[in-house]
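Ligand-bound model needed. S-adenosylmethionine.
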Amino acid sequence: MSDIAHPSRTRAILKKYRLSPKKSLGQNFLIDANILKYIVRTAEIDAHTGVIEIGPGIGALTEHLARAAKRVLAFEIDRRLIPVLQENLAAFPHVQIIHQDVLEADLKQFAAACFERNQPLSVVANLPYYVTTPILIHVLESGIFFRHMVVMVQKEVARRLTAQPGSKDYGSLSILVQYYTACRYMKLVPKTVFIPQPNVDSAIVKLSRREAPPVRVDDESFFFRLIRASFAMRRKTLINNLLAHFLPKEDKPALLDALAQVEVDGNRRAESLSMAEFARISQALKQKLQG
Ligand code: SAM
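Prediction:
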């Protein structure tokens, strides 16, 4: 039998189970086995690797992961797809399908229960477009020690994840992702390799977890809230955004002091600031507010 990731097999599965893909759940199924092989290679999966897959759909990617990995844990939100996955992946007892919204899953607990200590772990997903950012943040903040996360996202999101200061794509998501991981844009994927076809092209991004963050931050929650507020209105200056979205007006002197101390001009826009500059502002401002 051909791979699930083949146009005729995918159509046959959809017909057999009387399934119509749900746009509201971002259901665009991959039908190109070469792309799936590329994803498995990029995620550096071998016979020792544990894998968490998000959104297995009808199992196209799961099948390729199962052939390469020691164990696969796949979270699927759509109840209709559970019997499809169980039947089509029955040959792989080391694949476990979990019917759950991944955003509600305690990934750390699942990883502790299902994978061995020190086992290499990869997270892999052709992400549903409507919820890409929350899922990425959920995985990054879950505390699971993945080595690599390889995700297919909309091309525009891929640009945001890998953007550097000064570009229009650079924002709080770029900094959050690059704080935890070294992030690389790997490959453009045309919309023609999905059923149904989405409106835009996609790209594969590889995020490799850093041993330690690239900057020193004592209070990560404060740091990330400060960054989100700094980008609240992209055309506003740093000071104006922080006073409108992060600090009460009476803290303006502390903010001006902190910016002077770290030699950052508060009239700059957030998109021109590096992660290192945000880290210095965060450290200095926290100290001023406490002192
Ligand atoms: N992996 C399959 C493939 O590549 O053909 C399907 C990918 S499709 C773009 C996204 C999948 O994620 C769908 O099966 C959808 O039902 C599932 N999904 C959407 N939101 C989810 C969530 N919050 N938690 C888990 N799965 C979700």
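The beta strands are 29-30, 50-54, 71-76, 95-99, 121-126, 148-154, 181-189, 194-195, 202-209.
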